[in-house]
Amino acid sequence: MSYVSIYRTLQILTAQIKKKPLALSDAGDVDGIVSATLFKISKPDAEIVLAHPQDVLRSPILRRVYWDFVADLPCPGKARLRADHHVTNSPCADEEFYDPSAPASAFLAMKALSLDNNPLAVTLVNLAVETDTANIRSQEALLLDAAVKGAGYRGKLRLVELLAREGLEALKREEVREWISRHEEMRKRTEKIAEKIPVEKVTIVAFKKDLGIAYRYLTILLERRGAEFTLVIVPRGLFKFRLYAGAQPSSSYDASVIASSLGGGGHKYAAGALFKATSLEKALKKVLSVARTHYVIGDDAIYVVSEEDIKKEKIIL
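Above: the chain sequence. Below: its structure as tokens.
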């Protein structure tokens, strides 16, 4: 069991002993963090637990709990209230604010928690919409996105606390600026790698090891240069691989179809999955096999990345 899993378990036990409201929200992006913040605004004494979609699907502990609020995640099984906009996540809570056409789960969470007239809630939801639709226009959205991506688990919990109490003034705090700076370095490294990858209509990138860059951002950079459909595969631990799938919103491709076939989920334009394979080549074949059941994909758009170089490779099924 990982450190984060142990910490989450302690959070749940503490909340149950103290009879505190218990919320579960996505740990991976601004939409999840803002959704958690909205619940904290609504219930200041709440215990906020953060998780990734695959944690919810695979953790027996998360699935045993009756949650007061769940946002931006697959339903863990027992929840009073849930706000979500992922087409791949089936509703199951006692009260659902579920709409796949909504721009962000935080928008639905604001409705569910009756915070429509709260100025701070409205401001934060607007930033969540900017980031979740990959249409960042404001400096505040850019900084908040970097803070979320640069913080660790406890840092994200701290960020929820600060946002609920101080609003966007929290972005000026030294600890938050450090998380922002950490992510900015990651973005720069990601941009350097993206520049070296030739872009095809369908671009598939496989990493020999996890380089610690912003892989979702990588798919966005490749799409900005002309890729209509991007599949990025990264090793994650022993015999596990993470898929980041991205599609131009205006294209005929649907990233969520590929991700859900591998046990993950997401949106048409951004989705992901964690799956098992015994080698990078087999992981590539697995992704290609799924992708080719839906789309015509050749062998000439595959690039394998190591720290030293980027090589074009053919993977024949």
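The first helix runs from residue 3 to 18.
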